[in-house]
Write a structure and sequence with these properties.
alpha/beta; 287 residues; globular; single chain; 15% strand; three-stranded mixed β-sheet
Length: 287
Amino acid sequence: MIRKFLSMLALSLAAALPAAADPLAKDVFGANRGPTGGRPAAIGFYSKGCVTGAVQLPETGPTWQAMRLSRNRNWGHPELVNFVIGLSQAARQAGWKGLYIGDMSQPRGGPMVTGHASHQMGLDADIWLMPPPSLQLSPGQREGISSVSVTNGKGTALSGNWSASHMQIIRAAARDPRVERIFIDPMAKVAMCQMEKGNRSWLRKVRPINGHQYHFHVRLSCPAGSACQQQDAPPAGDGCAEAAEWIKNRIDPSRVKPVPPDPDYRHPRSYRLSEMPRQCQAVATAR
C-alpha cells in the first residue's frame, strides 16, 4: 500500500520540476518546513533516504527538551519519537531530570544542509550526554548551551562527567528491540565493557566511533510498513576488544596503518535530487 501510494505520488509530481532542473537534494529537503501526509514510512537508507508521515517531537515535555530548535530537526518516524520519549523517562529512573535531545531528522528526512551524513529516514537521534540542569530552557538558551564531553581531550580516559547513570541510560536504549545501533566514543564503550557484570549481549549494538564524546547516536531498525535498505548486522560478540584497540591507537598513533581515501566516496550533501530514491524525489517535492 505504501509503495503504491508513493509510486502514484511520484507520477503526479513528475512535472513539478523542469526536466533540466536538478537541484541539490539537501536544498530541496532543507527548504521543507513540514512533513508529508499519509502513513508513516522510512524509505531508502540512513544516509540516502527520506520519511513520509513524520511527526514532530514536542519542543518540551515532562522528561525532555529538544535542542537547537532553529534547525527544525526534531522530526522523525513515529517509532523514533515514541522511543525518544520512553528513553527520557528511563533517564529519570537513572537519576536525571530527563534528556536533552539533539538532532533527529528534518520534516521529510533527506540530506541536511549542514552536518550529518545519516539521519535521513527519521530513524536516528542524537542524545546529549549532559544531565539536564533544567527542563525549562527557553528557545534562546537551547541555542547557546552546549553538552559536555565524557572523555579527556585526547580521548584516552574518561572525564569527570562520566557516571554510572550514563551506562544505565545507554543500556536501556540498547535493550530496546527497535534499536539497530548506538554510536558513542570508544572510551565510553570501554568503560561500559568494564562495568557490565551481567548479560553483555546489549553491548554488541554499541559501536565505537569518533566525534561522539558529547552525545550518543541511536539508530532504529526499519519499522513495519517501510521500504528501507537493510544495514549489515553488527559483528558477532560484544565488541569490547575492538573498542580497546581504538584507545590503544589513540595512545600510540604509530600503530595505525594509513588507509587511502575511497575515490568513489561522496558526502550525501553532494547528492542531486535525481540521485535520491525515486520515492524520495516525490516526497521532497510534494505540495
